[in-house]
TrEMBL record:
It comes from the Bacteria. Keywords: Amino-acid biosynthesis, Aromatic amino acid biosynthesis, ATP-binding, Cytoplasm, Kinase, Magnesium, Metal-binding, Nucleotide-binding, Transferase. InterPro entries: P-loop_NTPase, Shikimate/glucono_kinase, Shikimate_kinase/TSH1. It comes from Daejeonella rubra. This is Shikimate kinase. ATP binds at residues 10-15, 117. GO terms for molecular function: ATP binding; magnesium ion binding; shikimate kinase activity. One of its GO terms (biological process) is aromatic amino acid family biosynthetic process. Its cofactor is Mg(2+).
Amino acid sequence: MKVFLVGFMGSGKTTIGKKLANYLKYDFIDLDKLIESKVGMSIVEYFELHGENAFRDLEKDVLQKTEFPENVIIATGGGAPCFADNMSWMNENGLVAYLSLSPKALANRLENSKTDRPLIRHLKGDELEGFISTKLAEREPFYNQSKFVVSASDLTAERLAFYLNLG
Ligand SMILES: Nc1ncnc2c1ncn2[C@@H]1O[C@H](COP(=O)(O)OP(=O)(O)O)[C@@H](O)[C@H]1O
Ligand SMILES: O=C(O)C1=C[C@@H](OP(=O)(O)O)[C@@H](O)[C@H](O)C1
Ligand SMILES: [Mg+2]
């Protein structure tokens, strides 16, 4: 079983993904980390050097061309489902779960972890929640194509496994 976790930056894909993999004894792959290891630089550096469009091409390539192990939790980047045919590709190749959270809760989580995220690292104070609200509205039509939509507040690995019928 391949499980793809999707959702906005800060929804906890990386954090809960690791815990879920640990709980289920599955492998864990973070798509952003995989991209960083392939290009030998951070996502922030890649955006600065090559821009977002090049990143999206690379992200699609790494997502759709990697030979993932059989039992694996894959934490995707927040934009991955919203570009090219990535969302339908994930639905055809695994089980996709959207970790849903309000803009306010996302802003609270992201306030202290902006620096590794090129799309928000320059935003100050109220700008962050405004940006999240606008971007989330654009992205939700993609996220909502997921087989499972799960509230990401106070989510535990055990509960997520249960919702996904894996626990
Ligand atoms: N369940 C949670 N409760 C509170 N904070 C969380 C939770 N999950 C993640 N965070 C925090 O939110 C930030 C983003 O989490 P992360 O797992 O990197 O999200 P994503 O991969 O979806 O962008 C991190 O600072 C992390 O510590
Ligand atoms: O939402 C986005 O467009 C992005 C989210 C990031 O991943 P996280 O969702 O894990 O922060 C990372 O892929 C990149 O900074 C772009
Ligand atoms: Mg992540």
